[in-house]
Write a structure and sequence with these properties.
The chain has two domains: 85 residues, no CATH class; 276 residues, Leucine-rich repeat, LRR (right-handed beta-alpha superhelix) (Alpha-Beta Horseshoe), CATH 3.80.10.10. Helix content is 41%, strand content 11%. Helix 7 links the parallel strand 9 and strand 10.
Length: 373
């Protein structure tokens, strides 16, 4: 282990620590360090080794962040919950702890139960990262229940909930997992970052999540990439956008929004989310009228940096409208690659409405009114 930029990090990768003796160098480094952030990612720890590591962290009262991602490679699943329990028993008492990263550990619901005590008893944790952990519906319910319990405890103590960031991509949360999590977000009302990409969530779960966002008006990042939003989910997200005045990143890419859903989203965006910087709508069946509506909606987004629209069905009229707006905003390169866009630049192949040219011309008037700061 070595100190880099104020953080204790591994000098080895894919090293195996089976017991306390094998992990002696790690324990010594922790004991002798004076840092507040610790990372152990990329090595594999057995239960005795991780229990010893936890014990070494116990006297460290000023721990701010710990990274235990990808630390159970080759371990039996039964080994992991007791190791996480040992960690939770120590970390739950850390009053300065703000971030815990447990991503890329295949521990499932049993693992979630292993660190449940941390979520219930530590009232200061702000950022929880659990992507690619096989949580499933069961794990999601355990975490949601723990967050709700902590939220109620914080309120009883006369202080707001602390959690602001929840990242749990690739966990098979599905509708029955995201729904209780959404309820916990609504109860806390403190969320700034929610990333639940690639979780098999359908429109019902997206609607539940969107409704919960109404209580989280400080939200800056919403990432539901690679789920199934459809038109109904898109409209639910659109409905809450006016409340999300601080939103900077909206990622609804690869979500089968449909053109109808994108039209609803564009209408809502036109008079909301003034600080929007990143918008990802790839592979969503967007057609030319949807793109033109988006262009109109983005004409006043002076902080826009990135716009992803690849994998849709946008023809030249829609692309011209988008490019015109980006040029007026001073970010002509903001549009990502369109190599998988199925629209055609050949007007003989285009069967859109004649009114599209009028829409583009009208858009030019809107663009002319944009003040680029």
């Amino acid at each position: 282990m070595e100190v880099k930029e104020g953080k204790l990090v591994p000098t080895k990768q894919e090293h195996r620590y089976d017991d306390a003796e094998a992990a002696k160098e790690v324990i010594t480094a922790i004991t002798e360090s004076s840092v507040t952030e610790y990372a152990f990612s990329g090595n594999t720890f057995g239960t005795p080794a991780l229990t010893a590591v936890a014990a070494a962290l116990d006297p460290k009262t000023d721990v701010v962040a710990v990274d235990f991602s990808d630390i159970f490679r080759t371990r039996l699943r039964a080994e992991i919950p007791p190791a996480l329990e040992a960690l939770a028993a120590v970390l739950k008492t850390k009053e300065n702890l703000k971030e815990v990263n447990l991503s890329d550990n295949a521990f499932g619901p049993d693992g979630a139960n292993g660190f449940r005590a941390l979520l219930v008893e530590n009232g200061n944790l702000e950022r929880l990262l659990t992507s690619n952990c096989g949580l499933g519906i069961g794990g999601a319910k355990i975490i949601a229940e723990a967050l709700l319990a902590r939220c109620e405890a914080n309120k009883a103590e006369g202080k707001p909930a602390a959690l602001t960031t929840f990242i749990a991509g690739r966990n098979r949360l599905e509708n029955d997992g995201i729904t209780p999590l959404a309820a916990s977000f609504a109860a806390m009302g403190t969320m700034k970052v929610i990333r639940v990409f690639q979780n098999g969530i359908n429109k019902e779960g997206i609607i539940a999540l969107a409704e919960a966002l109404g209580a989280n008006t400080d939200l800056e990042v919403l990432d539901v990439n690679d789920n199934t939003v459809k038109a109904e989910g898109s409209k639910a997200i659109a409905a809450v956008l006016p409340k999300l005045t601080k939103l900077k990143t909206l990622d609804v890419g690869d979500c089968l929004m449909t053109n109808e859903g994108v039209l609803a989203l564009a209408e809502a965006l036109e008079n909301s989310c003034p600080d929007l910087e990143v918008l990802n709508l790839v592979f969503n069946e967007i057609e030319d009228d949807g793109a033109i509506a988006l262009a109109k909606a983005l004409a006043n987004k002076t902080k826009l940096k990135t716009l992803e629209l690849d994998g849709n069905e946008i023809h030249s009229a829609g692309l011209d409208a988008i490019k015109s707006v980006l040029a007026a905003l001073g970010v002509p390169d903001a549009l990502g690659s369109m190599e998988d866009n199925e629209g055609s630049d050949d007007e003989d192949d285009w069967s859109g409405d004649d009114d599209d040219d009028d829409d583009v011309n009208n858009l030019a008037k809107d663009v002319a009114a944009v003040k680029v700061e």
